[in-house]
Amino acid sequence: MARIYEYQGKALLSKAGVMIPRGEIATTAEEAGAIAKKIGGPVVIKAQVWATGRFKVGGIQFAKTPEDTRMKAERVLSTKIKGLPVTKVLVEEQLEIAQEYYAGIVVNSSVSIKAPVLVFSTEGGTGVEEVAARNPERVGKLVIDMIGGLEIEKIRDLLVQMRIRKERLEGIAAAIFGLYRVFLDNDARAVEMNPLIWTKDGKVYAADCHITLDDSSIFRHPEFGIDVPRDMEREPTELEKLAWIHIEETDYRGTGYFAQMVTEYQEGEVYVGFHGIGGGGSMLGAAALINRGLKIANYADTSGDPPASKVYKVVKAIFAQPITAYVMTGACLANQEQWYHAFALVKVLHEELKERSGFPVVILIAGNREKETIKILQDGLKGLNIRLEIYGRDYIYRSDYIAERAQKLIDEYLKERKEAA
Q: Which of 27, 155, 196, 222 has the fewest CB atoms within 10 Å, measured from its CB?
């Protein structure tokens, strides 16, 4: 699910009739100070990153004056939150809070529901799951009929069940109905207002929001400027953008997924280019490498029977990183013609490793045409001076062994390079 920033989500809510605090986006401390001056009162400075828990790590600051705002915005803009650099902050008015609520609409894909579900909690500002576990009576749910839609009368009924005071009911119901319009109009998978505020002067505001969109719908929403439609906690890297444009976006033949796990490389560190076939088995393979202390530079997946040309592009993306080894864990009996992987690998490895003597390559591949695939790899890579090990279906449940062999070859390769230096 592709995410959008808080300020983008609030703009959608405002358009749908939901009240939001007055505020603007700033990319410099000076801009933040000027916005605070325009607001003319105490403000909140909120880091705009795709991460939760900003308050606990200093990503949300409170300021009373424009100068105080400038200083604190400068501090926030110079930090990272959960590894994400802060490049912009939302500066908005402080609200006089009487009570905090939670309201969200989330698609539930379970077999028993398969529909959007409205969730409302009389306790906001914290995770609704925590509230449900601690005080389940404070959380109410309503399954939304996608044919009939969500009528405001049904929202009122839910709020009455949750014992919302009469004078607050209409305002909160209207805000939730606006949230539903945002959900529908923007092809969302999840929309949340947390907290939804009831102020001391009797108004309802969305003080914060979290919105994720259906990946498949992003082409219909160029206004969000989403380069890579994927659930990520950071902006995509240039390599990920290239991989999306040249591999995934216009070629629907099988999967050609590529995502970087490392965006800032440390000198002297060893990074493994990771390539999986199939989700669950691939994750086990990646976990086995990580458990041995190895760092994987990326996560790639070429399942669903992609052609050799698509596999080739994915592997080229892997080798565009500063990696010290390449490991493929096709830890599943894939229902696809695996020799296409072999053709792609032979071509890429000859292109990338001709001048990298002794480079470690570990390949686990199983499925249709497995014997032919392994023979293509063995014959095609015979003249290449690399540390090559190839495994078949007998090893699909031995991820730890594959990781052990990768570690062994990497150690040998690094020792050889050190002695040659």
A: 222
